[in-house]
Design brief:
mainly beta; 10 strands
Length: 138
């Protein structure tokens, strides 16, 4: 599937070819911290199937508990997280699906690092729902 997307401010844009069957949710604590959320939603993309159109991401090199080094790419202007990849000689990218224009069409097929998942996620559907930000009254 051909997708395209970019960062919040528009400085970075990309095109990619993904397999919609290889979309995952990652619950690891690094993804929770880096996304500022309960998990990260990713699509695996081979090196030859990813192309930056505009801009140049900045990389933060994260050393995992295993000692592996990962380059976490983000927009230097707005901070949007774009992808993670090997720090040296990347062969694939873990593209942040929320940055894709086609995100609504991309359903996760697997969850990884469930041992780090936040306990309240299983109850999220029971929470009150609003189509937009509700007004806050005191």
């Amino acid at each position: 599937m051909n997708i395209d997307g970019g960062c919040l401010c528009g400085v970075i844009s990309y095109e990619a070819v993904i397999d919609p069957e290889r979309i995952a949710i990652c619950h690891c604590t690094d993804c929770q911290i880096n996304s500022g959320s309960a998990f990260r939603w990713v699509a695996q993309v081979r090196k030859n199937d990813f192309r930056l159109i505009t801009g140049q991401p900045k990389n933060y090199i994260k050393t995992a508990d295993s000692g592996a080094k990962r380059a976490l790419a983000f927009c230097p202007e707005c901070g949007t997280s774009l992808y993670g990849t090997e720090a040296k000689d990347p062969q694939s990218y873990s593209l942040r699906v929320g940055t894709a224009r086609q995100a609504k069409e991309l359903t996760p097929k697997i969850q990884v690092w469930r041992r780090s998942a936040l306990g309240w996620l299983s109850d999220i559907d029971a929470l009150p729902k609003f189509d937009m930000q509700p007004s806050i009254r005191r």
